[in-house]
Design a protein that fits this description.
alpha/beta; 6-stranded mixed beta sheet; 5-stranded parallel beta sheet; 14 strands; binds pyridoxal-5'-phosphate
Length: 469
């Protein structure tokens, strides 16, 4: 499989190189040149497969030519074997034809484990074969950092540096990162905010001299492998609910548009999906696009669903590429004008095309808490605030009551106690057994000034399993 850039200028890459790439050299994002397409009969024949075997069927075409089948199968079995629920991604019913797909049974209790557990193993496999080492520098406001560290902790060929804003992530989230020790794991608390951290990562990609020739790899969802891994659970859920003979709708709590873009790809690969609901919090740039063709940058509003607090959605460019007939030059122009003005809209017929599949809703903190309380009262299920946004949006936007509506359950409620408390749900939150002693574990973290050079010097000093690069 070959991958091309959404801006049409960068060279095409194979899977292995796309795995190790960040942004394309023209500033675009990589997407498959040709999406694999499965027939309904083929998809139906996968019914009843264990998760890792289904994952093999769905993802095999994406890695062909880079990873032999037997190796890929083994990697997938290991990856999904670490999940705490035997079904890996169980469905829970809330109401007639209304479901939550629980994606939080991985090591760090958020859906990001599905992709980052795989990414760590793929990186180690490919790097061992090439005899190379890489450095990862990632910024996190919470969930990505812990999932990336868990995904890479056992990698022989990866040193990982995760930057989080000092004193601005929740205690559970911080401890999920800082209590993992290893000479290739480095937590850095930056005396600044999340944007400062993200800016440092971007600047480091732009000028990698401080790495003395070591390659820098991206772990955020601009990395194609993360999107790829997330396609699988749409197939998994649909097969449980009568698909592909019957179509299914999904509601997705959305920030950077990575998770929902995976659903869009699943549909283009042949899975009957009748509707995708973009569920956002107050940071609603995607809702403004879907409802009114206005993708305009706004200021950041901190919310009770912090993993969706974004100003722009990095993966939206991948959708724009398809909406423009995969014309990279057109996307390049749109994105540079967006960079200059902070505003973007597309021609009416392109927007209408997007609206055939996507609906959207922005949900505020008050409604989020009401939904947590309402669902708990009526079903006994405790939702995390991100999932609650998805459930509320699903109810408001669904087009058909006879089509199963699945909300992606993106995190375990114990990660977000503030929202659960505000919802007034009188249920004690308990950490799952593998994290039961999280609050007693020792922590390791380095606090650095909000200064790019200081951070890069730290990476240079420690980037080779704790030793200088
Ligand atoms: C990352 C995250 C999201 C948003 O996912 P995107 O792929 O960025 O749209 C939603 N909920 C939770 C809990 C997350 O960690």
């Amino acid at each position: 499989m070959r991958y091309i850039s959404t801006r049409g200028q960068a060279p095409a890459l194979n899977f292995e190189d796309v795995l190790l790439a960040g942004l394309a050299s023209d500033g675009g994002l990589y997407v498959p040149e040709n999406l694999p397409r499965f027939t309904v009969e083929e998809i139906a024949s996968w019914s009843g497969l264990p998760y890792h075997e289904l994952a093999f069927k769905v993802m095999r075409p994406f890695v062909t030519g880079s990873i032999p089948d037997a190796d890929f199968k083994q990697i997938l079995e290991e990856t999904y074997g670490v999940f705490a629920h035997n079904a890996v991604a169980p469905l829970r019913q809330l109401n007639g034809n209304e479901w939550v797909l629980e994606l939080f049974h991985g090591p760090t209790l958020a859906f990001k484990d599905f992709a980052l557990q795989l990414l760590g193993r793929l990186l180690d496999y490919v790097l061992a074969k090439r005899g190379e080492r890489v450095v990862i520098i990632g910024a996190t406001s919470g969930d990505t950092g812990s999932a990336a560290i868990e995904g890479c902790r056992r990698c022989d060929n990866v040193d990982i540096f995760i930057l989080h804003p000092h004193n601005r992530v929740s205690e559970v989230q911080r401890r999920q990162m800082t209590t993992i020790f290893g000479d290739n794991i480095h937590n850095i608390a930056i005396e600044g905010n999340f944007d400062d951290c993200q800016e440092m990562v971007k600047d480091s990609f732009a000028d990698q001299g401080f790495l003395k020739g070591t390659r820098l790899v991206a772990v955020n969802s601009i990395n194609w492998a993360r999107i790829m891994a997330q396609i699988v659970y749409y197939f998994h859920a649909a097969l449980q609910l009568g698909g592909p003979a019957r179509s299914v709708a999904f509601s997705v709590p959305t920030g950077n548009f990575g998770d929902i873009f995976a659903g869009y790809l699943a549909r283009n690969m042949g899975l009957p999906i009748s509707q995708l609901v973009v569920a956002t919090n107050r940071n609603d740039i995607l809702h403004r696009f879907m409802s009114g063709n206005r993708y305009d940058k706004d200021t950041l509003h901190p919310s009770l669903s912090p993993s969706m607090d974004i100003m722009v959605s990095s993966n939206f460019e991948r959708l724009l590429f398809d909406l423009h007939g995969r014309n990279g030059a057109a996307v390049g122009e749109l994105m540079s004008s967006f960079k200059a003005t902070g505003k973007l809209s597309v021609e009416e017929e392109r927007w209408t095309e997007a609206r055939k599949l996507f609906d959207s809703l922005a949900v505020d903190d008050e409604q989020t808490c009401k939904t947590i309380a309402q669902v708990f009262d009526t079903t006994g299920e405790l939702l995390d605030p991100h999932t609650a946004i998805g459930v509320y949006a699903a109810r408001e936007c669904r087009r058909s009551l006879s089509t199963p509506m699945v909300t992606l359950g993106t995190a375990h409620p114990v990660k977000f106690p503030e929202a659960v408390e505000k919802a007034g749900v009188g249920k004690a939150l308990e950490l799952p057994s593998h994290l039961a002693d999280l609050f007693e574990r020792p922590e390791r973290c380095t606090v650095l000034a909000n200064d790019l050079k200081a951070m890069q010097a730290f990476v240079g000093e420690h980037g080779n399993r704790g030793k200088p690069l």
